[in-house]
Amino acid sequence: SQQGEEDPQALSIQEGENATMNCSYKTSINNLQWYRQNSGRGLVHLILIRSNEREKHSGRLRVTLDTSKKSSSLLITASRAADTASYFCATDASGGYNKLIFGAGTRLAVHP
Amino acid sequence: GAGVSQSPSNKVTEKGKDVELRCDPISGHTALYWYRQSLGQGLEFLIYFQGNSAPDKSGLPSDRFSAERTGGSVSTLTIQRTQQEDSAVYLCASRQELPRETQYFGPGTRLLVL
What we know:
In chain A, about 0% of the residues lie in helices and about 55% in strands. Chain A contains no helices and eleven strands. In chain B, strand 6 and strand 7 form a beta hairpin. Chains A and B meet through strand 4, strand 5, strand 9 and strand 10 of A and strand 4, strand 5, strand 8 and strand 9 of B.
């Protein structure tokens, strides 16, 4: 069964706009990670936020984590057409063994 | 260096046949994971190998699914008597012993069962 639920399921924006994706989960976690997938194949790790962190930045990415609400958000600023992909949140509740539970993902389309 | 590789890239088989999917992890990575991704869905955990420890098979959907990891490196996922619902992309990932948090994914094998 899936731990994370992303919303929206699909997002369509213009280049230069910001894209925000949300993820909710059900159980206590060690960390939450965001991955990107192009064309339905291999995933690329984007960013990890630990359960004791509230916000993290990496380039144009900003991730927040609210453990009281069991939710996270991924913000991509100044989006580019190359950001078009599916984005997945994944939670690790396995005591540090990185056994990840993935959500269904958000399909982002950035139009030039 | 080389990333995680998987073979074949695509596999079409007939219902009832057995298939073997192969994963070559990054050299030196001690942990290896198999996931399944059905069309338009997220990844579903199947099995996890860590060094010489017994694998975590808790995600395997039925006894038709099995996996092995020989010599702590290459892994093979075997699906016996394939069914149409087995059609999916099968993804393999590996990670280092430390840090443990980042998994590196292969490109996947797209399996179609007719």
